[in-house]
Amino acid sequence: DGMGNLRVTKKGIRLEGISEFLLPLYVKEIHSRKDSPLVLQSDRNVTVNARNHMGQLTGQLTVGADAVEAQCKRFEVRASEGGKVLFSADEDEIVIGADRLKVTGTEGAVFGHSVETPHIRAEPSQDLKLESPTRSLVMEAPRGVHVNAAAGDLKATCRKELHLQSTEGEV
């Protein structure tokens, strides 16, 4: 019925205690006991591969000492309750699906190209600063840009000239 920590049962193979595999392990499912965590441990890294019916690698998750790497067509992080997609990434797009994106670095957020959003605001009692130190700052929208300072001053500064332009109305 088995050897040592390895037992053959009607449902498959039951492995009790700590065991070492020297070569790759191929299984359909791995479960821990209901009251115990499943621990996979390695001196270097732990890699989980997914393959298609032809044996070709379709996805890989590697947990190493310095990084966790995922190689796949699409990577998703979902909320534990409700399964809402909080983060997803594929070759064409990265989506952050949380209700709120908060950047906590002292330098703020730096974007290499354009940013499209319906709403930008600072934390309560914090200043909002939009800055482009070496280039121009452009805000445009097909139906207009609305800037509102409900509890303070609105200040626009520049080194050379400040242009406010209306093509069909007044400034």
Describe the structure.
With 171 residues, the chain is mostly beta strands. The protein has a domain at 6-32 and 40-96. It is built from no helices and nine strands. A hairpin with a 3-residue loop joins strand 8 and strand 9 (94-96). The protein is elongated and about 85 Å long. The termini are far apart. The mean pLDDT is 86. One of its GO terms (biological process) is heart contraction. Belongs to the sarcoglycan beta/delta/gamma/zeta family. Keywords: Cell membrane, Cytoplasm, Cytoskeleton, Disulfide bond, Glycoprotein, Membrane, Signal-anchor, Transmembrane, Transmembrane helix.
Helix and strand layout, with pairings?
Blueprint: E1 2-3, E2 6-9, E3 12-15, E4 46-51, E5 57-63, E6 68-71, E7 74-78, E8 85-90, E9 94-96
Antiparallel strand pairs: 1-2, 2-3, 4-5, 5-6, 7-8, 8-9
List keywords for this structure.
Sarcoglycan; 24% strand; transmembrane; elongated; 171 residues; three-stranded antiparallel beta sheet; transmembrane helix; mainly beta
Biggest sheet overview:
3 strands, antiparallel
Report how far the terminal alpha carbons are from each other.
88 Å
**Helix-strand sequence:** EEEEEEEEE
Q: What share of residues is helical?
A: under 10%
Multimeric organization: single chain
Q: What percent strand?
A: 15-25%
Tell me, rounded to a whole number, the average pLDDT.
Answer: 86
Tell me the number of strands: 9
Flag low-confidence runs: none
Radius of gyration: 27 Å
- Individual helix count: 0
Strand order of the largest sheet: 1-2-3
Q: Globular, elongated, flat, extended or rod-shaped: what is the shape?
A: elongated
Q: Which structural category fits the helices and strands? A: mainly beta
Keywords: Cell membrane, Cytoplasm, Cytoskeleton, Disulfide bond, Glycoprotein, Membrane, Signal-anchor, Transmembrane, Transmembrane helix
GO biological process, one term: cardiac muscle tissue development
Subcellular location: Cell membrane, Sarcolemma; Cytoplasm, Cytoskeleton
Family: Belongs to the sarcoglycan beta/delta/gamma/zeta family.
